[in-house]
Amino acid sequence: MGEGWGEGDKFQPKFYFLRLSTMSNTTQLLRFITAGSVDDGKSTLIGRLLHDSKSIFEDQFSAISKTSEKRGMAAVDLSLLTDGLQAEREQGITIDVAYRYFATPKRKFIIGDTPGHEQYTRNMVTAASTANLVVILIDARRGVLVQTRRHTYLASLVGVPHIVLAVNKMDMVDYSQARFDEIVTEYKKFAAQLDLHDITCIPLSALVGDMVVDRGDSLNWYQGPTLMEKLESVEIDHDVNTTDFRFPVQWVCRPQTDEYHDFRGFMGRIEAGEISVGDEVTVLPSGRTSKVKEIVTYDGNLQTAFAPQSVTITLNDEIDISRGDMFVKTDAMPSVAKEFAAMMCWLSETPLDKNRKYLVKHTTRTAKCLFSSIDYRVDVNTLEQHANPTVNMNDIIRVAMKVQQPLAFDHYTRNRASGSFIVIDEASNNTVAAGMIV
Questions:
Q1: Percent helix, strand and coil across the chain, each to the nearest 5
Q2: How confident is the model at residue 9 (pLDDT cuts 50, 70, 90)?
Q3: Alpha helix ranges (H) inside 209-268
């Protein structure tokens, strides 16, 4: 963070805080992922969204038009917009989530195109962990499959707030309302076991374009929103915890200049809640208290700041504070402990070794950790729990953990930011697991 000035330069707060400026706007940007089985039409759906929302360039459309024509297709194959990912997989290249970016006059979007196969469970988990919404695709001919249940479970595990069940290929079942209702009933029965409630079910045909961006003429019996209308209108302001103030310290700012010699600010992003000048805060894990003196941003000082703004906070009192400490309000305290239980997805090709130490990175704090127990592994296809497992890549497990230094945390269902962590192999520095505190 010291790149803000060179040797001999004057410290300029406005320039220095540029890297942590408050550019995020949860009402403008929607992050969502698509999940579905092979041949459910995921690539075609993404292509249709991009095409019908006028989010592809003319040369791109011209290229896929020529390719479709060479293949003897009567219509443009919109799945070609994302076929590059499939081609790379066929070559045996390891693929992470492929992201697509587009915008409409109402909202900006980031699509995470997640692999559907079970061997890519870790990819879906990491993509879903930051998503506001998941579109779970079902082929109307095949109905609810094992993969459908697996994707839904993973979405619930990482706390995706909004689910859209997109029943695709309705043109292949004569746009049957009875078939759509049958699939919805079966899916909601399963979702109820996971305590999922915010589910929107939409019949559509990605190939033809019905109910994706435009309503079309073949699904008049359906009175709900199109997929695009749902994406543009879903309320995501409350996806961030607005109640409990959580501010992990990312950097302690002490500019060594004559003009700002006494300045001591604590930089980071507000992960939940809000803070105002004059509010009392408690610094964890020490438990020391003080009051907020200033809230500094690139755009100037603020009276009040809120999640997910990035700010610099100064305090009235001199307290020993370092990276990894957390500011909270005294009347809304998290748990502070060296032991906790968590659900975890193992990401590494090397199995978990219960007898060795790892590093856990929680918000901005990194500490050594041990797995005191592995309670069970979840079969993501059946939701069965298996005791005393060997933990391999893509496994979902429940564990008990001990850390060397106390962490200030919330349950993941209350706050995704302060309830999540990653596990790092100390020897290779590779991320080997992602976890959610329960």
A1: 25, 35, 45
A2: very low
A3: 227-233
Distance CA 271, CA 382 (A): 34
* CA diameter of the chain: 76
* CATH architecture of the domain with range 29-239: 3-Layer(aba) Sandwich (3.40)
Q: 314: which strand partners?
A: 294
Rounded to whole angstroms, the Cα distance separating 314 from 293 reads 5
Q: Where are the alpha helices (DSSP H) in 95-161?
A: 121-128, 146-157
Residue 320's φ and ψ, nearest 5 degrees, are: -75, 105
pLDDT of residue 18 exceeding 70, the answer is no
For residue 45, which amino acid is it?
A: L
Distance from chain centroid for Cα 221:
34
Expressed in angstroms, the distance from the first to the final Cα of the chain is 33
Check residue 25 and give its pLDDT. 41
The encoded tokens of residue 146 equal: 């094992």
Indicate the pLDDT class of residue 11, thresholds 50, 70 and 90.
very low
CA torsion 31→35→41→46, rounded to 10°? 10
Tokens for 330, please give them. 């005294």
Q: Taking the domain 10-24+241-329, which CATH number applies?
A: 2.40.30.10
- For 337-383, what is each residue's pLDDT tens digit? 999 999 999 999 999 999 999 999 999 999 999 999 999 999 988 88
Q: Which helix (H) or strand (E) holds 183?
A: helix 177-193
- The third-level CATH classification (topology) of the domain covering 335-437 is Elongation Factor Tu (Ef-tu); domain 3 (2.40.30)
Q: Which residue has the higher pLDDT, 84 or 396?
A: 396
Domains 10-24+241-329 and 335-437 share a fold: yes
Tell me the three state secondary structure of residue 72: coil
Domain boundary assignment for the chain: 10-24+241-329, 29-239, 335-437
Please enumerate in sequence order all residues whose Cβ is within 8 A of that of 386, keeping only pairs 6 or more positions apart, or say none.
Answer: 376, 377, 378, 379
210 DSSP assignment: B
Quick one: which of 150, 180, 178 has its CA closest to 167? 180
pLDDT digits (tens, 9 = 90+) for 104-133: 889 999 988 777 666 778 888 888 888 999
Q: Is 262 helix (H, G, I), strand (E, B) or coil?
A: coil
pLDDT at 100 (0 to 100): 81
Query: How far is it, in rounded angstroms, from Cα 221 to Cα 178?
Result: 11
